[in-house]
Amino acid sequence: MKKHRIIAIGNAIMDIIIKCNDDILKTSNLTKGSMTLIDDEMANKLSKLDIIKIDCGGSAANTIYCMSQLSQIDCEFIGKVANDSFGNQFIKKIHSQNIKFYSNFDERYPTATSFIAVTNDGQRTMCTNLGCASNILQDDIIEDSFVNADLLYLEGYLWDKKDTILALRKAISFAKKHNVKIAFSASDSFCVQRHKNDFLELLKNDINILFCNENEFLSLISSKYFDKNESISFLRQFSNLITIITRAELGSVVINNDIYENCNIDKINNVIDTTGAGDIFAAGFLHHFLNNESLAKSCNFGNKLAGKIIQNYGARFNSSDISELH
Question: Residue 143 sits in a domain of what CATH number?
Answer without folding.
Answer: 3.40.1190.20
